[in-house]
Amino acid sequence: MLLLRYDDSGCNIMQINVTLYPTELKKTDQKGKTVVIIDVLRGSSTMVYALAHGCKEIYPMPDIKTARRKWKACKNDQVLLGGEQNGFKVKGFDLGNSPEEYTSEKICGKTLIFTTTNCTKTLRFCKNPHEVLICAFLNAGSVAQYLCSAKRDIVFALSGNNDTYSMEDMMCAGLVIDKISKYRKVNLSDTALSARIIYNKYRGCIRKGLLDSFHGKHLEKVGMRKDVIFCARIGQFAIIPKYSNGVISI
């Protein structure tokens, strides 16, 4: 249980905002704040899972061409190429974007060069924040506890789907916001308040929320229901991946 105190005088109120898609993050003031990147289906979930299973570090790349170029520049048996385009594994890549592909046997001790349709692009728009965290339902509890203990304002940056809003990312942000709000005095933007409301609608039935979402339905249609269900698991890993100088690690 989090046992934290806040200043009732009002001078220590945490400001929390949610940006709904990458280009909105680009226009948002991030200076001195913690930016939390979320892509539940499936970018951030996959990165959390890989790091929890011993991945040494992840180099997120904005597109396939850049990822291949990076991989060729440092090619050896300790560097893997992973990711997806439009939901599917890229031809010639070692791994795709299903979290459970990233087993300890495949990823432990290795470097991952990773690209996705949405999540890795969102990282490009991080402009001078204090720090950048990677969050999914899989590590949401640990992220919430960390943020609750900090004294910085927060921007939850949702990756969305092709620069449009995604409900599953909003639900995840809402879960973390809900936990923080119980222990800190907060000022929520309209989007942050909306995230908390949506999370509470699906509280206790996150799997249903993900399957109800547009992208969840798409993944189910193309045979990836198992991934959607897996990504709905809350608090599976007590890790907080951080993005700094082009690398994600714990």
Summarize the structure.
This protein has helices at residues 22-26, 43-52, 64-73, 104-107, 119-122, 140-149, 167-181, 190-201, 206-212, 214-221, 225-231, and strands at 14-19, 34-38, 57-61, 79-85, 88-89, 111-115, 131-135, 154-158, 186-188, 242-244, 247-249.
What are the key terms here?
250 residues; alpha/beta; putative 2-phosphosulfolactate phosphatase; 7-stranded mixed beta sheet; 4-stranded mixed beta sheet; 11 helices; 11 strands; 20% strand; globular; disordered N terminus
Description:
By secondary structure, the protein is α/β, with parallel strands linked by helices. It has a single domain (15-249), classed as Alpha-Beta Complex (putative 2-phosphosulfolactate phosphatase), CATH 3.90.1560. Helix content is 37%, strand content 20%. The protein has 11 helices and 11 strands. The protein has helices at 22-26, 43-52, 64-73, 104-107, 119-122, 140-149, 167-181, 190-201, 206-212, 214-221, 225-231, and strands at 14-19, 34-38, 57-61, 79-85, 88-89, 111-115, 131-135, 154-158, 186-188, 242-244, 247-249. Strands 9-1-8-2-7-10-11 form a 7-stranded mixed beta sheet. A hairpin with a 2-residue loop joins strand 4 and strand 5. The longest helix is centred in the last third of the chain and has 15 residues, at 167-181. The chain is globular and about 50 Å long. The two termini are 23 Å apart.
